From TrEMBL:
Residues annotated as transmembrane: none
CDD domains: NAD_bind_Shikimate_DH (cd01065)
Keyword terms, alphabetized: Amino-acid biosynthesis, Aromatic amino acid biosynthesis, NADP, Oxidoreductase
Gene3D superfamilies, per database record: Leucine Dehydrogenase, chain A, domain 1 (3.40.50.10860), NAD(P)-binding Rossmann-like Domain (3.40.50.720)
Entry protein name: Shikimate dehydrogenase
Cross-referenced SUPFAM superfamilies: Aminoacid dehydrogenase-like, N-terminal domain, NAD(P)-binding Rossmann-fold domains
Naturally occurring in which organism (per UniProt): Pseudomaricurvus hydrocarbonicus
The Shikimate dehydrogenase substrate binding N-terminal domain, residue ranges: 7-92
GO biological process terms on file: aromatic amino acid family biosynthetic process; chorismate biosynthetic process; shikimate metabolic process
Pathway: Metabolic intermediate biosynthesis; chorismate biosynthesis; chorismate from D-erythrose 4-phosphate and phosphoenolpyruvate: step 4/7
Length: 280
């Protein structure tokens, strides 16, 4: 009998997460059935009801992506991993008995991807664009990695303020940045982090003014479709050390698999190189 799981999101038809999860299951010698629950073309799609429906249909668990991560928070009765509840969003749900347990593998996956690419280098001062579900997870991960200051920009001011307060409770210095301050703050930070959808095939553009890129040391883009966004291209051209959305995708996917199955998988160069060939 195979474990039934899926990725729930909107506009995810091009996602390679099912391929990754089936690849990991083959390496581990177990059977899974992993599909997609795409709300993009479903009239009146309700992520809360769809999670409840999946649970009643015998699903073992779900991964959740944009734009539903924060919308399903209230369904979670407890964390799979202690401490993840403070993040305020979940991207991994596990159904156990009558409970829905949650974890945020964007948090753990970013930490793994960051250390894989940058070793023990401290993040320094960082500017994040996007304080939604993935933005909160990455901000908490940067706090865990020892970021000295995190500046937050979001087109929804209340969302940025909420994240600032959460970071201050963790003891991380943070501030909310307004749109007319963005370029000036960019010149003061060590790292630029895009946690918006800008740059995706369906949302072209850049959250950061491209002309202000170059004085920073490193950058991260949560977008991986395409792998080379305009933001990433400009950062690489400026000689910055770059973490791509692929880095987050592969490591959070491995973490999710381990949480679902209890089987540890080594994120070695062969696995990473193989998965990289699946993206376009």
């Amino acid at each position: 009998m195979s474990l039934k799981m899926a990725l729930m999101g909107s506009g995810i038809a091009r996602s390679r997460m099912p391929r990754l999860q089936h690849y990991l299951s083959a390496l581990s010698g177990i059977a899974i059935d992993y599909g997609l629950l795409d709300g993009e073309n479903v009239t009146g799609f309700d992520p809360v009801k769809r999670v409840q429906q999946a649970k009643s249909e015998g699903f073992y668990g779900l991964n959740v992506t944009h734009p539903y991560k924060q919308k399903i928070v209230d369904l979670v009765s407890g964390p799979i991993v202690h401490g993840h509840e403070a993040i305020g969003s979940y991207n991994t749900l596990k159904f156990e008995n009558d409970e829905i347990l949650g974890a945020n593998t964007d948090f753990s996956g970013f930490i793994s991807g960051y250390t894989f690419r940058r070793g023990d280098r401290a993040p320094g001062q960082v500017l994040i664009c996007g304080a939604g579900g993935v933005g909160r997870a990455i901000a908490f991960a940067l706090s865990e990695l020892g970021a000295s200051h995190i500046a937050i920009f979001d087109v929804v001011p209340g969302q940025a303020e909420s994240l600032r307060e959460a970071l201050r409770e963790r003891g991380t210095e943070s501030e909310v940045v307004l749109s007319d301050q963005l370029e000036a703050v960019m010149q003061q930070v060590d790292g630029l982090v895009n946690c918006t959808a800008l740059g995706m095939y369906s949302h072209p553009g850049s959250a950061f003014p491209l002309s202000a890129i170059g004085a920073q040391r490193w950058a991260f883009d949560a977008v991986y479709t395409p792998l080379e966004t305009e933001f990433m291209k400009r950062c690489k051209a400026a000689g910055m050390q770059c973490l791509s959305g692929f880095d987050l995708w592969i490591f959070q996917g491995i973490d999710a698999f381990q949480l679902f199955t209890g089987i540890e998988v080594e994120a070695n160069n062969e696995l990473i190189s193989t998965a990289l060939t699946w993206l376009d």
